[in-house]
Amino acid sequence: MFVLSVTTAIAVFAFSAAVIAVAGSRLSHLADRLADRTRLGEAMAGAVLLGATTSIPGTVTSVVAASSGNVDLAASNALGGIAAQTAFLAIADMAYRRANLEHAAASVANLTQATLLILMLAIPLVAADTPATTVLGVHPATVALLVAYVAGLRMAGRDRDNPMWQPTLTSKTRRDQPEDEHDTRPLWQLFAAFMALAAVIGAAGFAVARSGIVIADETGVGETVVGTLFTAVATSLPELVTTVAAVRHGALQLAVGGIIGGNVFDVLFLSAADVAYRDGSIYHAIDQASLFWALVGLLMTAVLLLGLIRREEHGVANIGFESALMLIIYAGAIAIMVL
Predict the structure, then answer these.
(1) CA-based angle 331:333:334, to the nearest 5?
(2) Which domain does 200 fall in, by range?
């Protein structure tokens, strides 16, 4: 099998990250169109369509890394990506000038998704302290994550269609209503374009995974550092691009839902990685440095949930308290890992 040099691996990594960013820039518009045409709603379209699709590079990276025995790269890519993407939401908040993003994008579906994310992040942490029992090489926590994901999506859909409460509407609240756009393409063409971009992003994600493994192995930097600071950020570029793009054309619930839904889907990276890892339970093979990022993601999501509930209308310097705190937590976590 052809082996990449470090120089070539870095070049492949950079080029693949650029492809992910460019392809991801079109996804938010297509997801917004599909949300309107299918009546799925921006929050659910963000969680199901945008979140899952933009997570393809990360999924590929974690699966390839786990199947190669690079368990810490697989785990840190998944869990580090959640922290990075939540920080991206703070950047999107700064890009939205009219009000605090979490205030304007009020949605009960996003509250449900954020709560689900906290639950799912807790499962790997609990699994790491349970017996390393597997069935056909798969730990029960993997099944628990899949069940929680499906049940959570169904609950979020019911909350959107039949909410038990409604957020207070203000002049700054952006309501999720279908927009009149002159896009007459049939629905199947919109889905085809969406899936074509997903395929491009998936291929680029595979290249990021392979080059990231080479960089980790040949430079001695360490799988957790490479996974958290390089592959996690690179494979999360679609979320950054699509979130900022969604905010700019007014699809606020789509932007928030895409990040939260993508993070929920990212926890499933561990499920896929556990299946791909054939030497037992991946939850017991990863080190404490990788599990640390599960705690960071859980902490940042809790802060985000507080922001979504409190709905601060105007922050300081056009950034809400939750966005500022999430950036501080993320920067602090990186400092702890590097120092």
Answers:
(1) 65
(2) 6-165+187-338
